[in-house]
Every structure is written in C-alpha cells, then in structure tokens.
Design a protein that fits this description.
Blueprint (H helix, E strand, L loop, with lengths): L6 H7 L32 H4 L19 H25 L5 H28 L3 H22 L2 H11 L9 H16 L6 H30 L2 E4 L10 H13 L5 E4 L2 H10 L3 H12 L15 H17 L5 H5 L8 H34 L9 H13 L3 H4 L5 H16 L2 E4 L11 E6 L5 E10 L9 E6 L2 E3 L2 E3 L1 E9 L14 H18 L20 H7 L5 H7 L11 H9 L5 H20 L6 H15 L15 H4 L8 H18 L7 H12 L7 H9 L5 H7 L7
C-alpha cells in the first residue's frame, strides 16, 4: 500500500479517480486469525505429502512454480481440520489455562495456517488466472467460516477470559498480554456475546461479505485487463516518451495488433495522462479508467460492481448493527488508534478547511497557464494531470522524463539499501533462487549490524497482465519460535514498473514517482522483517490499521533528500550522478499542487467515512449521492456524470480500508511528526533517532498500544500541524 505523495502521481490523482490507488499492505481479503501450531498427524495421505503448500519446515518456502490451483483447497482443508482438532484437544485436555499450555500453542497453530494462506493470496495477486482464482475463492469461503467460528467459540473465549482474569496475567509481558487481549476484543467484535441464532447470522453475513469483497477486486482486475486503446498513427501519441512508445508497441505485438496499444495499467495510464498532447485520447483513457467495473465501462458491463458495492456496504452495516453499533464506522474504530468517529470527521474537516483555499489558488494558476499556453478557456478533469506536468516543468524545469535516465533499477535498489544501512545498520544480501512465481522476482536476506539474520523478502517489481495494479507489501512468513527454532519474518514486496525491453538496450528506468513508491513499500517491508516479536498475531505490521502507514510514509522522505538522491541516482549512460541543479529543482517542486492533492485525498477519505456512516442506502444511486455530497466541498472542477471511480475503489471495498481511508492522512501526521524528529539536528542520517525508531516502533510490532509507543518514541503526542508543514501549507486557522 502506498500513499502516492509524489509529484506526478499526485498530478495523476488530481480530480481523476483511482487509477493509481495501490493494493493494501495486508492481504486483500480478511485472513483468518493470524496465529499458528505444532505438527499434527490428524490427516494423512499421499495428496497432502506431495502438496507443495504443506509439510514445509519453519523457514522453508515452497517452489512457487510448482503450486497449482488444485493444491489450494486440499491444503486449506487439511490445515483447517488439523486446527479444529487441535483446538478441541487443547480445550478438553487442559484444566488450568496458561500462556504456555494454551495461548502459545494457538499462536503457533494459527501462524502455520496464516503463512500458508499468505502464499495462496499472494499468488492470486501476482499471477492471477481464472482457475487459480476459482480455487482461491473456494478456500477463502472456508477460511471466512473458520475465522468467524473461532471467534465465536465460547469455550475458546472463556479460556482466554480465564487467563486474562488469573493472577498470572499481571506477570506476563506486555506482548503476551496483547496476544490475550486482542482475541478477546476480536471475539466480542465477532459476536461472541450474541445469541446462538444471531451468531449464526453473523457468520452467514461475514461469509457473504468476504465473497463479495473478493468479487469486487476480481471485477476491477478483469475490467482493467480487458480494455485497451489501439492507436495506428504515432502522431496521435505526440508527447509520449520513447520508452513509453516502445512499451506500447510491445503491448500491441503481444495482442497481435499493429501500431501501439494503451492500457489502464498504472505505468501506461500515467504516462498517457501526463504527457500525451491529444486531448481526445486523454479523455478516452480517463473515461475508461473512471468507469472500470461499472455500467458505463467501454470494455463491457459484465464486471459491473455497482450492486456488489451496495451489498458490501449493506452487509457491513448489518454486522455492525448486530453488535450494537450505530454504524460501521463505530465498529471499525474499535481496533484503531483513533477511537471516536467525531474525531475522524473533525480531523478530516479541519484539514479540508486548511487545504481548500490553497487548492483553489493552484487550480486558478493552472487555468491561467492553460489559457495562456494552450488557449483553453475551460480545462476539464482529464486536462489536469497533463497541464500540471507542463506547468511543473515550466516553473521548476523538471519532469519525470528528465529524471528517469538517472534512476536505473539496480542503482535505486543499491542506494535504497545503503540508506537503510546508514539509518539502521542493516545489510541486504541477495540470494539467487529459481523457485519463484516469475523469473524476474528477486529474493533478499536482511542482516543486522552484528551480521545476525533478521528477516527475508521477495521483490516483484514489474507489471504483468495477470498481476494486480498498484504497489503493496504482504506478510510471507511470521516471526515465531517453535521447539527452540527461530522462524524469521518474511515479506512480499510488489510494485508495477514497466520492464525495459531487450531491444531498447537500456536497463529498467524508474520515474521519481516510482522511486518514492519503492521507498514507501520498503518502509512497510522493514516493519515486517525487522520485528523482534515472536508472537505472530502481533509481530511485524500487525498494528492498529491507522498506524500501519507510519514506517512507509516516513521512508519516503529520504527519496527527496540531496544526500540520499546521490546514493540512488546515476545516469545509465554517462554514469554521472543527478546534477545539483536538478536536485534543487526536484526539491523545489516537491509540494507542487499539494493543496489539490490533499483535497483529492480528503475526498476519498470523506466519501469512505460518510458512506459507512450512512443509514439509508437502499439503491445504487444512494451511493452516488453520498459521493456527490462530498464533492460539493472537494471537487473544484465539474466531474462527468459517467464517472464511477467508486466502482474501482478497491481500498475500501476489497482491501481492508473500509471506514479507514482517513488512515493514510492520520499516519502521515505521525510520519511528518516523526521526520521532524529525525531532522531536528539537521542530519541526513540521525543514528540516535533512527535507533529509537528501530527499537521503539519497527521492532515492537503491535505488542503495545501504538499511541503509547509513538509517545515513547517522539516524547509527545502527534502534532497535526506537522502534516500541513510537510505539504508546505499554512498551519493557521
């Protein structure tokens, strides 16, 4: 998941839609309890012994290339049956429940299931096929039933309560106490205290919701894959870079077409919207992007998410009402840093009041520029990214295409790893392996300053038709100890960069936007792999959802610093670093159109929160009315009637950000405040502050309340003004 706080991606988002909204950090569908267990011989059979998803040692990964759709359901069936039997045995054979004889075995048991599902979910995201998706869907339904079943297990709940009220509880560490308190909270939020008939209804609704969320995601993916624009005259693509033209020509060849093909994949869409001179083509791309998975989609209506979206919101409301909450927002905040719905709405409203005036001024400047340079009396929403890129270049003499030759994939990765080493003393070592889901995937191990292994991660950089759009990190394996053996935390890091063709003779070159995105995702990756918590349910980035973006957004800052830019940049031909004048221009442009960008983010957040707080949503048009009401305050240009960006808003309808899109901005308050702490001495790499961030945030995972950990790190509560300063906006009323 990334926040896209970058120049051109900010431009790309302005008033367009969610073409670039990334997939979230966590799995895109609700995973079962993130917990794990000891080996069992409950189910045997040759089919299980030969299943590449099963019988793996603690730190062993399967050969991804051998995992097929037919392996998914048997593996999940086996693990679910084993877990159910193990829980039954624990409950029946234990007289006095303790950490050692009950909580820890459950942690280990659930982690084994969670790690297996992480592999399946990941493959569904990066190598999606109809057959694999079908297997994924069937397994997901079973996992959802299991997850609700476990959280509604009264005997399990009573066992945790007995430990929580025992004299021993006060002697447990804070981390141990968290692993007991969280399941009690989750059980209450899953209807443990409901009557039997209402529990059954809760389980039924949860299963339906999970299926719909998965279907929503799949519809977005299918509509994105199944639309393209064929261009037969290169003059129509005037303005597009040579690299983008080569990529478009290659896509045409892959589809058996002549000429050039434009797609809705992030790199193609962004390049067209920011550089192609032809307004008609930009409008076509805009319309296709903002109508994905809707009745207005030019590629077909078979993936329409309109009713699915409404049903998802309805089911969430029903679940919240069953538990006695007024709306889904109240329910969602039960396990967030921000606990009160009024605090969220006040936070967003105050930010909008501060940002709106700046956004109006920026739009007026853009309109004046369009009138003077292009004789455009009225700009449309599909003009904004293009004009913004042109104005940016005029004001600061900088553009993504001028910067791109300096950011080769290898130089950026090496520089990024050097920056992490300078901050935290860690070293990344590449391990060559062919047992991946794609030949271009890379695998790294992370070692600390004492050369002790800390974690591992995969990097999948390139865009593919079968891969979800955006950028995200998901857990791959949980950190834990079993029978004295240490399992190290692992992660999957994914982006969507266009790979250089062999014919071009060039390395893969990144835009600065893509560099910032990579930094962002690497921040998530560090949060996962540097954890020192050995209890899977609270290790890594298993923290409050509105705090999860802190490490990633913080890491973005070094992609703008002169000393860091020297480490990650080098012209791929001349081998010269990014010139000082270009660095100065890039830094000067950092907050270009920040008011417009912030207002657009606030539109997303307010729509999400208002939608999930609404009580009278009965028809598809009611969803649109919620969005239209928000746009009365946020939309500074007229939005076409056909725009249905909500139908592709996977963040909140398939990705875990329901009633939580505000988290991006809330976490940016945390990251902005934290970065001011890093910079207070004027040092690029303040090792003292970095050590505090490592030990008090990254290593602790969710072992304590995140607000307490942040205050311990920062020495005070987070300052909202830091976010406004970060955007270069006034902190006044």
């Amino acid at each position: 998941m990334y926040h896209m706080k970058q120049i051109s991606i900010r431009i790309g988002l302005l008033l367009i839609g969610t073409a670039f909204l990334a997939s979230p950090v966590m799995a895109k569908t609700p995973a079962p309890l993130q917990t794990s267990v000891q080996k069992s011989t409950l189910i045997t059979g040759t089919h299980n012994m030969n299943n590449p998803l099963l019988n793996l040692s603690l730190n062993q990964f399967p050969d991804f290339s051998k995992i097929q759709a037919e392996h998914v359901e048997p593996a999940i069936d086996y693990l679910l049956a084993k877990n159910r039997e193990h829980i039954k045995t624990l409950l029946e054979s234990t007289k006095t429940y303790t950490w050692e004889n009950f909580v820890l075995p459950l942690e280990i048991m659930e982690a084994e299931l969670g790690d297996t599902w992480a592999i399946v979910s990941h493959l569904n995201s990066v190598n999606n096929t109809p057959k694999f998706y079908e297997a994924y869907e069937k397994a997901l339904a079973k996992l959802t039933v299991y997850s609700t079943e476990m959280r509604q297990n009264k005997a399990l709940y009573d066992a945790y309560k007995a430990i929580h009220t025992s004299n021993e509880f006060s002697r447990y560490t804070k981390a141990q106490q968290k692993t007991i308190e969280n399941p009690l909270r989750d059980a209450r939020l899953s209807g443990i205290e409901l009557s039997a008939d209402k529990q059954e209804l809760f389980k039924k609704l949860s299963t339906q919701l999970s299926e719909l969320e998965s279907k929503f995601q799949q519809n977005v993916l299918e509509s994105t894959k199944n639309w393209f624009l064929e261009i037969d005259d290169v003059q129509k693509l005037k303005g597009l870079s040579k690299e983008a033209l080569e990529s478009s020509a290659l896509k045409a060849q892959e589809k058996g077409k002549t000429g050039w093909v434009l797609t809705l994949d992030q790199p193609s869409y962004h390049a067209v919207m920011t550089t192609v001179d032809d307004r008609a083509i930009r409008e076509q791309m805009y319309q296709a992007s903002t109508t994905r998975a809707s009745q207005f989609f030019p590629g077909g209506t078979q993936w329409d998410n309109s009713q699915i979206l409404l049903d998802i919101v309805s089911l969430r409301k029903q679940l919240a009402h069953l538990l006695g909450f007024e709306n889904y927002c109240q329910y969602a905040l039960e396990n967030r840093m921000v606990k009160d719905t009024s605090h969220v709405t006040e936070f967003l409203s105050n930010l909008l009041a501060r940002a709106r005036e700046s956004a109006k001024q920026e739009l007026a400047e853009l309109q004046a520029f369009a009138q003077k340079e292009y004789q455009l009396a009225k700009i449309e929403v599909w003009d904004v990214p293009y004009l913004s890129e042109k104005l940016l270049h005029q004001k600061h003499n900088i553009s993504e295409e001028l910067l791109r030759p300096y950011f080769s994939e290898e130089k950026v990765l090496q520089g990024l790893f050097s920056i992490a080493h300078n901050l935290y003393g860690i070293t990344m070592k590449e391990v060559k392996t062919s047992a991946t889901w794609n030949p271009d995937v890379r695998f790294f191990e992370v070692y600390d300053k004492n050369n002790v292994l800390r974690g591992k991660f995969y990097v999948d950089l390139y865009t593919r038709p079968s891969k979800n759009d955006g950028a995200w990190v998901t857990p791959a394996k949980s950190r834990m100890k079993q029978n004295g053996e240490q399992q190290y935390s692992m992660a999957f890091l994914n982006t969507n960069v266009t790979q250089a063709t062999l014919e071009s003779g060039k390395p893969t070159l990144l835009s600065h936007d893509e560099v910032v995105t990579l930094f962002h995702e690497f921040g998530h990756c560090l949060h996962q792999v540097l954890t020192k918590i050995d209890y899977p349910s609270i290790a890594g980035f298993h923290v409050e959802w509105d705090a999860i973006e802190l490490p990633s957004q913080l890491m973005e800052n070094w992609a703008w610093e002169e000393g860091a830019l020297k480490l990650i940049s080098e012209h791929w031909e001349s081998k010269k670093p990014l010139p000082p004048e270009m660095i100065a221009q890039l830094k000067a442009a950092k907050n270009f159109n920040s008011g417009l960008f912030l207002v657009r983010q606030l539109e997303f957040a307010l729509f999400d929160f208002n939608l999930h707080a609404a009580q009278n949503l009965e028809k598809v048009k009611d969803v649109q009315q919620v969005l239209d009401k928000v746009r009365e305050e946020t939309a500074l240009l007229e939005i076409p009637d056909y725009n249905r960006f909500q139908n592709g808003f996977t963040h909140i309808f398939a990705g875990g950000y329901s009633a939580g899109y505000y988290s991006y901005l809330w976490a940016e308050v945390l990251s902005s405040d934290a970065y001011e702490f890093f910079k207070q001495k004027g040092l690029l790499f303040d090792k003292e502050v970095a050590q505090k961030f490592l030990t008090q945030i990254l290593e602790r995972g969710g072992s304590e309340d995140f607000m307490d950990m942040f205050i311990e790190f920062r020495g005070k509560k987070p300052d909202t003004g830091a976010l406004l300063r970060h955007y270069g906006l006034s902190t006044g009323a």
